Amino acid sequence: MTPRSVRDSGTPAGAPWVRTRLRTAPGTACALALLVLVTSFLAALFPRVVERQGTEGLHHDITAASPRHSVLELSSPQPSLQMLPAEREGAVRGAALKTVHERVRAALPAEVRPGAIDSAYGFGTSRPIPAQETWLPRPDGLDPQLSYTTLSDLPRHAALRSGAWPTVRGPVTEDTDEVEGAVTEETAKALGAGPGSTISVPTRAGEHLTVRITGVVAPGEPRSTYWSADPLFRTPALVQEPNSIPPRPGPPRYYWIAAVLLPPDAGPALLGSTGEPEMFWRFAPDASGLTAADVPGLRSALASLESGPGLVRLRGMAGDDAAFRTELDQILAGYATLRAAIEPVVTVAAVGVGAVAAAVLLMTAGLIGGRRREELALLRARGGSLAGLGRRLLAETAVVAVPAAALGLLGALAVFGPARLWPSVAGPAVVAALVCVALPLGSVLPHRRPRLPGTRDDLMEARPSRLRTVAELTVLVLAVGAVAGLRRRGTADGDSDLLVSAAPVLVGLIAALVLVRLLPWPLRLASRAVARRRGAVGFLSLARAGRSSAGGALPLLALLLALTTAGFGGSVLAGVSDARDRAALLAVGADARISGLLDTAPLPARLVREVRAADGVRQVAAVQVMSEVPMPPGADGTGRMENTVVLGVDPDTYAGLARTADLGAFPADRLRAGKGEAGSVVVPVIASPSTAAKLGDGPRDLTTPGGDLRVRVAGIVPRTAAVPDHDFLLVDAAALTRQRTTTLLVAGDPDPKALRATVRQAGESISVRLRAEERAAFVDTPMQRGARGIYAAAVAVGAGYALLAVLLSLLRTAPERTALLARLRTMGLPSRQGRRLVGLEALPQALPVAVGGVLVGWATIALLAPGVDLAGLALFNGPGTTMPDTARLRPDPWSLTLPAIGVVVLTAAVAAVQARWAGRRGPNTELRAGDSR
Predict the structure, then answer these.
(1) What pTM, to 2 d.p., does this model score?
(2) Which pLDDT value is given to residue 929?
(3) If DSSP states are collapsed to H, E and C, what string results for 157-205?
């Protein structure tokens, strides 16, 4: 720093320096800008991806739900009898209902405020009325029951197939004796109705209202809320007669229920009907503008409309007895549950990748600062202050980092559209701030004290300071607390914080610090062993590895964090796949399941033989399923009678299947029955825990469809393949007097088409279920798919940063390594041995990192597995009801070993390329007089 620059106060201090530095080292500036740009882009992209996938998941849950569950419905009883007849009749006509409809629509939450197209309102009977017409169908002799409803905008939502649209002929009052109506095509086909048909509707006054069918219509969009909020509007149903007391003997009887649609102004004619008519307004929620951030406010607004101030406002519009009903709040609750289960797991991945990126940025700052150490030392020796150097470094770093971070943010905004801005701004801002602070500080702080020429900071000679020891112990305490918190609180309920989510990172950090402390010991031992052997390559490589900087904890940290993140992410994806495989196995019980009707109808013996002989079948377990077997009175003396499922099986075959499938394995000898007359020998049984507790320890008598048994519990297993989700008793089929096969459990890989063809020949009522089809039925919701995508991206990004960390670590020592090769070549070292030297120099650090990464990844997963539940990510909204209780994390060998092997291979490849490149340059190019390398 010259006196001229100090005296010349009129010239800006930073501008000439920044311009000169950018012109001097444009490659370094561009590389730093590129790294900051990519990191900022990822940091800005992550919150937008999470928010967008959360919003898409919300839209999916609402649109995929049945309209009868998502509809917003306001209903009110018919006008009070204390009102004048004209007022009552006017209140149920189309104009009055439309006015209330518009007012109510304006009062609904803005997040889901519906349009007028798919909404409906009207006045109709809330209880179906039996129809006495003889021409109506009666499958079991019971009269069909019909509801009558005025429906708004029917011509807009339907097409006329025959006849004419129903209209009113003059003013309709409560005393009108005839109105027109319409039915849908499905209703007309089921009831045999058509234009000209008449239906007599009884009234409370003992008279009858005639409804004349004038038209048959076809719904324009049958699955829309207009038609599906009440499915009877478009589709009649055949329902079972309610149970009577005492029960009626004989099979159940069925009758038709359907709806007849009336014109909007025909409502007054229904005031006197016996069907308890009511007014209704139905709204289809519009979720197109709804975001994940709006869910808490929307749930609060819906709760207010159902039973709060919002309901009071609605009653002021529709009547004092109006009621608001919707199941949209339950849909939102399910969405919130899934999101709470997924977010902590995703946060763990985000924190891991963020830590790896931060470590690589710090490595880059250290590399740039190390390359400029002599330059800064010279400026410091000429009188430059630490503050002045820091300001200049900050200025030249900010000129590069801030625009790069802004470009990364703009790129993320362009890739992903609408989302909240501030979460996306926070990431690039942190990246830019980290680079702008780390590079000046890391470059200036080593120059606080003068450094003698030739002084080295060797790894094997360095001694940790007290400050470093205190910092490491602090990190250790935080890591222990984070791991304990994650194991105790878990991720299933979504109650996690940043410290808990950083548990894998803290474990990796502790491992890196431990590895830095332990690494000098094997290097010293290896150096002593190699020093006594002939040849210079081994000794020089270990000496070079030992002379690496003692501040090399950062490369080790970056690599260990990257390997841990990749292993954790890959294990999460493997755990999701395993949980779904397990759920599919629990649903079927084996690779294939062939069952008679209700699992109790017998299967033909020929089918059993053909299935055993089918291609791809390894094993077939024949099972006799006997449901609803009454249990003896409880062993506790309560006398309660309960039922269970008794399974007759072959002990050897079924035990082998249970062992292979890991569904309640047991020794076959424990189930095998002894010889003797039925009922006289105590038969050993394998029971579920609750069934075993009810039977007790002594012999108990059972009456089953397969015969009378005297049983004793010989073993307890939590589940069994034949009925994974029920209490059960396993019994040797040889002890049954009436044996028959009702279910086949097949192990192997049979051809699905051939297996179904074989079963179809045996009977149409026999069902086939395949484990592979159950597994394929797991379809990700947008949030599940997004979470899995984030973990896959975390693995890829972590691997990319790991490779970059390897390159930066090797580039840090590249000049010294190149100069060493040049000197050794002048001393006669062959090029081949020079390449071996470079490779062996890199391996003493790459191999411990790779082995340590595998061990740390395995230990991290083993430590955190009790607190990480993948059920929400893997099984939410899965098919069927038989699901694993939890989906725990487990180490995935491939995810742990492949990245570690990649680190070693890349290190060796980069070293080989550098050695070959250096070998092509002459010693005169690399060696200069006075060069300190």
Answers:
(1) 0.76
(2) 45
(3) HEEEEEECCCCCCCCCCCCCCEEEEEEEHHHHHHHCCCCCCEEEEEECC
